[in-house]
Amino acid sequence: MSGGPAGAAPGRRLAWVLALVASAASASCAGDAPATAGGRAIAVSPWVEHPASRAPDALPDIVELTAERIMRDYAEGRYTADQLVRAYLARIARYERVYNAFVSLNPDALAAAAALDEEYRSSGPRGPLHGVPLVIKDNIDYAGLVTTAGYAGFSAVTGGVDMIADHDAVVVSRLRAGGAIVLGKTNLPDFASDGTRTRSTVAGVTRNAWSLDRAPGGSSGGTATAVSASFGALGLGTETGGSIQNPAAAQGLVGVTPTFGLVPLAGVVPVDPTYRDVVGPITRTVWDAALVLDVIAGPTSEDPRTAGPAGRIPEGGYAAALEGSALAGRRFGLIGPGWREQYLPLAPETERLYRLAISALRERGAEVVEDPFAGSEWRERYARRRSAPGVGDADLRAYLERLGPGAAFHSVEEWERLTGRSFRGAIGEPDARRRPPGDPGARGAFGVWQREMRALFRRVLAEYELDGLFFPQAGGPVRPLVEDPDRPDYSPNNHPELPSNIVNYVGLPVVTLPVDYYADGMPFVVAFIGEPWSEAALLAFAYDLEQATRARRAPALATDTIR
C-alpha cells in the first residue's frame, strides 16, 4: 500500500489508501484507464471491489504455496494465473491492514496474469517462474511504479516527489522475462538502515507474521512478512549488513545472501554498491530460493560488478544441483568466541535448539568442529577492519540517472529544488550528496583488508577440512517489536545476528533455513556459510537438512492489531 498524506496517522493513511484502491477498482471494472493522482498512475491494485475479495472460497488455496507447486498445478490445469493473483489480492485485502507489509501494489498484476494465461495456452510457459506471483523490496525499481526506499521524500503521497523509473531493475527484468508477476513493493526502513525493525517514513511499521509483538527483521522486513504471511509465493530482498538473513530468521524463511557481484545491482537504490550490497531471494523452501537465483544471477553489461560470476554458476543451474544426500561426509565449523563475542554465549533455549540441529546434521552424515576460529586471530583482525566506502555521490548519481528521461529528477540537487527540502541520504546521514565518490586510497585499503580476511577464512576451512560453517542465525530469540514500553520510539538495531555483519564485510555467502521452534512458537533458523561463490553447495546442504527436518509451517495470522 502507498504511504498516506504527509503527517497522516497510520489509520488515516490506510483509509486514504483504501479510498484510492476502490477508485482504481471501479475504473478497472469499467474498463477505463487506471486512476491517477497528479497525472501519475496510482501504485495500488484493484482488489477492494473485486469479486475475488467477496468469494475467497472459489479461489485457490495459497497458504504456503510454493513456486515449485504452482508450476505443477498450472501443468495439471488446477487454476490459472488470473485466479491465483486474485487469491493473493484477496488475502492481502484481508490481512494487510494488520501487517503493513507493502508500500505499493501493482495495478497491472491482473493484466499481467491474463496475458500470461493466454501465453501459456498458446505456447506454454515463458520461463521457470511463469505465472508465479511474488513481491519485491521497495528499493528495487519496477518501471512505472514509485520507488521510495522507505523514504517519504520519494513519494508524492507523503509530501515528497515520486521517484519513478522508466526501466526495471535488471533483477526485475529477469524475473518478468522468466514469467513472474510482481504483486507489489514491500516496506523497508528508510534507505534500508535497520536490520531489526522495519519502520519507514513512507509507510510506517511492518509487523512480524508470526507474532505482532515481535520485530519482523530488517531491512527486508516487508518482503519477509509478505512471504511468511502468504501475500506472495516468494520475494526479493537486499542486504548490506544482515538485511536478508535477519528477517528470514525472524520469520522462519529461507534467505540467500549471495556473493557480491553474483546478482546485478543496476536499478537498486545503493547503500554500499562497491563491496557489500547484494540482492537475494526470500522464500519458504530451498528449492524456490535456488530457482529464483537461477533466474536473477549472472553477468550483465549494465553492471560491471557482475563480471566475477562468469564460470562460477553451476552449468545446470542451482535448482538442478539440489539433492538429498549433500551433507554426507561433509564437515562444518560451529559457532564460538573465535568468530565473535557479541551475542555469545547463546541464550539457553537457543543453545538447546542449536544442539538439536547439530544432531540432525550428524544424522545426515556430516561431522562438526567446535569453534574452528579459536586462536586464529579472526576476531582481532576483524576488529581492525577499515571502513567500507558506503554510498558516495557517484553511486547515487549513477542510480538516479538510470531512472530515465521520464523521471521527475535525476540528482539530489534537482530533488531539493523540487521539494524545497534538504536531502537526507543513506543510513540517515545528512548531505550524502556531498560525500566524495570514495577516496581511492580508502577503497583500496578496505579491499586489501577484505582480501586478507578471505584468505584467513580459507586457511581456517582448509586447516580443519571444513566445507562451511553451521551457525544459529541469531544468538537468542527474536527481539520485541517495542524494545522499551516507556519509550515506544526507541528502536535499537539489535537483532542478535551471528553471521552478519562479519560475512557482509568479508564478502561471504549465506543460506538460512528454519529447522525448529522456540517454546513460544517463534521459529529457530540456522545459517550455512561458505567461501565466495559457494552458493550451489550451501543450497544443497540446506536442501538436504530441509528434507530431513521439514520444519517450515504457516503462521496463524491475526485480523486485528494489538493495542
Can you lay out the helices and strands and say which pair or pack?
Blueprint: H1 10-29, E1 36-37, E2 40-41, H2 51-54, H3 67-75, H4 81-99, E3 102-105, H5 109-123, E4 133-137, H6 170-177, E5 181-186, E6 199-200, E7 204-205, H7 221-228, E8 234-239, H8 245-250, E9 254-257, E10 278-283, H9 286-296, E11 331-334, H10 348-363, E12 367-369, H11 378-383, H12 393-402, H13 412-419, H14 440-463, E13 468-472, H15 502-506, E14 510-517, E15 523-529, H16 535-549
Parallel strand pairs: 4-5, 4-8, 11-12, 11-13
Antiparallel strand pairs: 1-2, 3-5, 6-7, 8-10, 9-10, 9-14, 13-15, 14-15
What does this structure look like?
- It contains 16 helices and 15 strands.
- The protein is an alpha/beta fold and 563 residues long.
- The chain has a single domain (10-317, 326-545), classed as Amidase signature (AS) enzymes (Alpha-Beta Complex), CATH 3.90.1300.10.
- The strands form 3 sheets. It has an 11-stranded mixed β-sheet, sandwiched between helices.
- The longest helix has 24 residues, at 440-463.
- It starts with 9 loop residues before the first helix and ends in a 14-residue tail after the last helix.
Question: How confident is the prediction overall: mean pLDDT?
Answer: 88
What share of the residues does DSSP label as strand, in percent?
A: 5-15%
- What is the overall silhouette? globular
Largest sheet entry: 11 strands, mixed
Summarize the amount of helix as a percent range.
25-40%
What gap, in angstroms, lies between the N and C termini? 22 Å
What is the CATH level 1 assignment?
Alpha Beta
Total number of domains: 1
